[in-house]
Amino acid sequence: MWAREVVVGADGSAASLAAVGWAARAAERHRVPLRVVLAYHWDRASARSAGEMQLRSARDGVAEADAARAVTHAQAAAPGVEIRRETVIGPAVPNLLTAARDARLLVVGHPGHGRVGSVLTGSVAQAVASHAPCPVVVVRGRADAVTGPIVVGVDGSTSSLETLGLAFDEAAGQAAALVPVLAVAPMSGPWGDIAEQSCLSSGARLAEEAALAEWLAPWREKHPEVVVRPLVLRGNAAPTLVDQSRTARLVAVGSRGHGGLAATLIGSVGQHLLHHAGCPVMINRRWPVNYR
Fold it and tell me: Quick one: which H or E segment has residue 137?
C-alpha cells in the first residue's frame, strides 16, 4: 500500500510547532497530505456541575485553538500542502499510533510543553519511535536546519540497509549530501587500542570500507544525483552518530541491528540519539526496502 500522508503530533508548544513545520516541508517534498493530530486528556462525560462543564469547554477551546495554530504554522512552512486537522480526547501515544497506521511518516517534537497536557514529552517520542508502524522523525536540536548532510548509521543489518534506502530518498528530496557512517566499536581487553589501531590501518579497515561500499552500491545506482561521503569511524555507534549530528540536518538509524562488522544499531542507539542528537532524528520502523 502507498503511504498516503505525513502525520504530525501537536500540543501547542514551541517544540510541537517546530515538528509541524518540519512535517509540512516533508509532506511537500513527498507530495502527500499532512495530518495534524492534537490529543489531550479530558473526560467530558464526568462533568457534574455547570462550573466543571464550563471549564472543560474552555479546555476544549484551547485544544482547538492550538490545533488551528499548528495548521497556520504548517501553511506558512509549506503553502501548497493539503492539511487535515483533528483534535482527539485521550492519551497521545495510542492516538498517534492509530493515526499513523497507513502513514508515510510520523513526526513528533521532543519535548513538548503544551497548554492541553504536555503530550509531546520525551517519553511519548520514545514510545512512538519504538512502536510506530512507519518511520518516525523526532524533531530536536536544529529543527529548521537546511544545510549540512543527512547522516545514516549502517552496520550491515537488514534494518540499517532499509534505513540506508530511506536516507538516500531523503537526501535526494532535500538536495543534501549523504554521510553513511560505519562505526567500528573499540576492542576490549588490555591490547584493545593497539590491536584496533593496527586493524584499522591495515586489511581490516579495507574490508570494512569494501563492505560499506557494497551496501551503498544499489542505492547509489538508484540515486546517482546524491553526493555520498561514506565514513568508517572508530568508536561506539551512539556517541559517533551524536558527534556527526552536530553538523547534520537529519540523522537516521534503524530500530534494530546486529553486531556484525561494527557497533550494533539497536534500540539503545536510537534512544541515545533521541536525547542527545543535535538535529532531527529518524528512526526507521519496519519500512520495506522497495518502499517507493
Answer: strand 136-139
